[in-house]
């Protein structure tokens, strides 16, 4: 439901600070909030189970979303501004004069994931190790949602999938994907230490088989690979790939065949190819 409607003439209101500090996404994470940009991402946020705190939009967008806002389960503060005002916010072509402020959803724990695995006949998870580019992270999230991944496991070396650019590049699909952060994390979500390796071992003990998307002498062509009922596909950074410590814990290595002379795909593209192939095998 709509808690309040404020027609604004400037962006100086304290309540609008999250919308005007888009270049400080880590500050948002520390505050437990994130920004959704654009019509499609905002619409998917409103249709999700994630809590919505406020929305900033033009009069035209307000007319389109008015009924949905009135019927929404959350009490939402609505700020209406003419486009000439919202156009002063960085990235106008991307946010299209409609943005929303959401509350970071609680992640699921390793133990909760294990409970899901042990109670399901089949689960597919993805782990990201060293993915620091928010755009790549967002596309990986989108691919996970597209191909039925049950949860995204985030290693300490990866960026947060709720960074603004990641949320945007996920096209809002982040709102339907459970997130598991390996290792205990601080209030600012900066993960530290190497406890994540013990948690990977714990996941393996629960029955999950880990497959590294990585060139290796023992790598199997993805087309010939057979995946376990409880599988986790690990993707690493484009530069150095999956860390040695994580590689040592992986059960098998899989690669995508490609033309001689081309050694790799962008990690987001590689995730789409691999997840499609796994999905294709599962529904055959």
Architecture overview:
With 284 residues, this protein is α/β, with parallel strands linked by helices. The chain folds into two domains: 2-103, 60s Ribosomal Protein L30, Chain: A (2-Layer Sandwich), CATH 3.30.1330.30; 110-283, 3-Layer(aba) Sandwich (Alpha/beta knot), CATH 3.40.1280. The chain is built from twelve helices and twelve strands. The protein has helices spanning 17-20, 25-31, 39-46, 59-71, 83-86, 92-95, 110-118, 134-146, 164-169, 195-205, 244-247, 267-283; strands at 2-7, 33-37, 52-57, 76-80, 98-103, 123-129, 151-154, 179-181, 209-213, 220-221, 230-236, 252-255. Strands 8-7-6-11-9-12-10 form a seven-stranded parallel sheet, sandwiched between helices. The chain has a five-stranded mixed sheet with strand order 1-4-3-5-2. Helix 4 (59-71) links the parallel strand 3 and strand 4. Helix 8 runs parallel beside helix 12. The longest helix is centred in the last third of the chain and has 17 residues, at 267-283. It is elongated, with a radius of gyration of 20 Å. The termini are far apart.
Please write out the topology.
Blueprint (H helix, E strand, L loop, with lengths): L1 E6 L9 H4 L4 H7 L1 E5 L1 H8 L5 E6 L1 H13 L4 E5 L2 H4 L5 H4 L2 E6 L6 H9 L4 E7 L4 H13 L4 E4 L9 H6 L9 E3 L13 H11 L3 E5 L6 E2 L8 E7 L7 H4 L4 E4 L11 H17 L1
Parallel strand pairs: 1-4, 3-4, 6-7, 6-11, 7-8, 9-11, 9-12, 10-12
Antiparallel strand pairs: 2-5, 3-5
Helix pairs in contact: 8-12
